[in-house]
Amino acid sequence: MLYGSTMIKVHATTPRLEKALGRLGIKASTAIQVDNTIYFSGLTGVDLETGQAIPGGTGAQARHTLQIFSDILGDLGMSLDNVVKVNAHLVNLEDFAEWNDVFTEVFEAPYPCRTTVGAPLIVGLIELEITASLEPRR
Amino acid sequence: MLYGSTMIKVHATTPRLEKALGRLGIKASTAIQVDNTIYFSGLTGVDLETGQAIPGGTGAQARHTLQIFSDILGDLGMSLDNVVKVNAHLVNLEDFAEWNDVFTEVFEAPYPCRTTVGAPLIVGLIELEITASLEPRR
Amino acid sequence: MLYGSTMIKVHATTPRLEKALGRLGIKASTAIQVDNTIYFSGLTGVDLETGQAIPGGTGAQARHTLQIFSDILGDLGMSLDNVVKVNAHLVNLEDFAEWNDVFTEVFEAPYPCRTTVGAPLIVGLIELEITASLEPRR
């Protein structure tokens, strides 16, 4: 569902995620564009059918979360190349190297900006929030 | 107090909050607009007279914090309908349902984007930071 | 290294930091501009030669981190006067007053917006992320 005008566009959901988000009871919008910046809701590496964190630890969950963002961006006519900033929250700081490996494998240079801190999470081992630009960074 | 030009507008305080913020010794600006996006300082559910967290737990503090943001947005000619993103930090993750209830009661569809993580806080049980758009999302 | 067009400009590194960031293996971009907003990667108070947190505690590390941001902003033709928002993560919440003192000494009124929460960190005692505007706030 898309709402908005020239200055703002609200993507309450995107086609590929609509069923999953409804099933999970998520009411926050998936993405909202203001000028040429697109803000997103934070996501973690959950199975979109069950709402449970997927197995495999921080690295696997990071990769899965970025795949969901990639799908969302695809629905909006963009890709991970449009991401300009990634805010990461890690339950276990000792998994930073694992997260860093996924970051450098999934994204390509020039990379997005990034901030990583530790935080307890409601579900899963890593929470990612992205900010994107209508024009890709590469 | 308002500073700025066409590209940027700095709201060091807003009329309804000026006295309280001065009394609490808060020097960070309340809100700064760049293009059509308005950035805000994070807030928690404190009594603006005393600086102490209000009683009633996470849900009550969340509601109070959003009321303060609503007042600030009102001073700027906007409302909670202009909020595009909410970043929430919870001291007790088990209070997520309480926070989620307030979020869905106070905002209306289409909802803002949202990220919620756990974090120790200086005051109170929930810290909220909002980002708004000059044009409302609904 | 600068990539981009009129809508987006990617600063993978900036001249004064290029050697240090390469040595530390940091692949995230230093700063990316979308419209008139510039997003930055989070930084902590590390010695750029060694990657180790500098001595002196939270206040000293906060001051050092802001100096690195000041250098980066200088490379981009800006200064700390262009900062519109500071997101701070503190390992020890009892150091808030120390951080607040540095914030009010290093920045000048009208101040940026600010959010401060607690968080475990990979290196150091304080992590700062800034958002800037192409036009200074003062």
Structure description:
By secondary structure, chain A is α+β, with helices and mostly antiparallel strands. Chain A has a single domain, classed as 2-Layer Sandwich (60s Ribosomal Protein L30, Chain: A), CATH 3.30.1330.40. Helices cover 27% and strands 28% of the residues of chain A. The first copy, chain A, has three helices and eight strands. Chain A has helices at residues 18-24, 57-75, 96-106, and strands at residues 2-4, 8-11, 31-34, 37-40, 43-44, 83-90, 113-118, 126-133. In chain A, strands 1, 2, 3, 4, 5, 6, 7 and 8 form an eight-stranded mixed sheet that branches. In chain A, a hairpin with a 3-residue loop joins strand 1 and strand 2 (8-11). In chain A, helix 2 (57-75) runs parallel beside helix 3 (96-106). The relative contact order of chain A is 0.21. The model of chain A has no long low-confidence stretch (mean pLDDT 95). The interface between A and B is medium-sized, with 29 and 29 residues.
Average of per-residue pLDDT values of chain A: 95
* Largest β-sheet summary of chain A: 8 strands, mixed
Mind telling me which CATH architecture of chain A this is? 2-Layer Sandwich
**End-to-end Cα distance of chain A:** 28 Å
Say what oligomer this is. homotrimer
- Most extensive interface: A-B, 29 and 29 residues
Q: Kindly provide the name of the CATH class of chain A.
A: Alpha Beta
Assign the structural class of chain A, choosing from mainly alpha, mainly beta, alpha/beta, alpha+beta, or little secondary structure. alpha+beta
How many DSSP helices of chain A? 3
CATH topology (fold) name of chain A: 60s Ribosomal Protein L30, Chain: A
Helix content of chain A: 25-40%
Order of helices and strands of chain A: EEHEEEHEHEE
Number of domains of chain A: 1
Number of strands of chain A: 8
- The outline of chain A comes out as globular
Strand content of chain A: 25-35%
CATH superfamily of chain A: RutC-like
Low-confidence stretches of chain A: none
Radius of gyration of chain A: 14 Å
